[in-house]
């Protein structure tokens, strides 16, 4: 199960970003979602895209774990969470998927800082940054041995992970 440990909270965040790299919509996470799946869309709207499949139902008041059909996440993981209150709350990057600024799994902190000069560190110690072009979202990064091993596009008001 993917669990984002970082506190994904706000304050004044970066609203302008680095120049975008040319990438297809199929490999780009952000600024509003991945392909047809957009942050904030309801479970019903997400299902109607035909791009998601339920992996783990949410219990009363909790978030359900889903996968993007095009990018299955494996047995013990989910590709996104959908909140009953907030809709699509966070979407995890799969291998080969990058932000419009070129950051993805395997990127270094130096690359993150170059792409996002306003990157901040959460109380939990993990870096995050406001998404250029979407003031309602953050990118959150988990690093190990100096490289990103988990990247998520996160609704700032998400209520699925802490």
Summarize the structure.
With 162 residues, the chain is mostly beta strands. The chain has helices at residues 43-48, 109-115, and strands spanning 33-34, 37-38, 52-56, 64-68, 80-83, 87-92, 120-121, 127-131, 134-144, 147-155. Strand 9 (134-144) and strand 10 (147-155) form a beta hairpin.
Descriptive report:
This protein is mainly beta. It has a single domain (25-155), classed as protein yfey like fold. The chain contains 2 helices and 10 strands; from the N terminus they run ββαββββαββββ. The radius of gyration is 14 Å and the shape is globular.
Detail the topology: elements first, then pairings:
Layout: E1 33-34, E2 37-38, H1 43-48, E3 52-56, E4 64-68, E5 80-83, E6 87-92, H2 109-115, E7 120-121, E8 127-131, E9 134-144, E10 147-155
Antiparallel strand pairs: 1-2, 3-4, 4-5, 5-6, 6-10, 7-8, 8-9, 9-10
Structural class: mainly beta
Main sheet strand line-up: 3-4-5-6-10-9-8-7
Number of strands: 10
Unreliable sequence segments: 1-25
User: What do we call the CATH topology?
Assistant: protein yfey like fold
Q: How much of the sequence is in beta strands?
A: 25-35%
Largest sheet: 8 strands, antiparallel
Q: At the first level of CATH, what is the class?
A: Mainly Beta
Task: Give the N-to-C terminal Cα separation.
Answer: 14 Å
Average per-residue pLDDT, rounded, comes to 85
SSE string, helices as H and strands as E: EEHEEEEHEEEE
């Amino acid at each position: 199960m993917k669990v984002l440990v970082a506190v994904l909270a706000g304050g004044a965040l970066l609203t302008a970003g680095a120049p975008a790299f040319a990438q297809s919509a199929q490999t780009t996470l952000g600024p509003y979602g991945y392909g047809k799946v957009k942050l904030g869309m309801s479970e019903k709207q997400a299902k109607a895209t035909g791009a998601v499949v339920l992996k783990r139902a949410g219990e009363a008041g909790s978030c359900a774990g889903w996968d993007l059909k095009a990018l299955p996440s494996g047995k013990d993981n989910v590709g996104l969470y959908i909140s009953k209150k907030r809709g699509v709350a966070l979407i995890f990057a799969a291998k080969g998927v990058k932000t419009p600024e070129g950051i993805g799994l395997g990127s270094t902190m130096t690359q993150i800082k170059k792409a996002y000069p306003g990157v901040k560190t959460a109380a939990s110690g993990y870096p995050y940054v406001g998404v250029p072009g979407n003031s309602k979202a953050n990118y959150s990064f988990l690093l190990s041995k100096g490289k990103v091993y988990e990247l998520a596009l996160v609704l700032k008001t998400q209520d699925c992970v802490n």
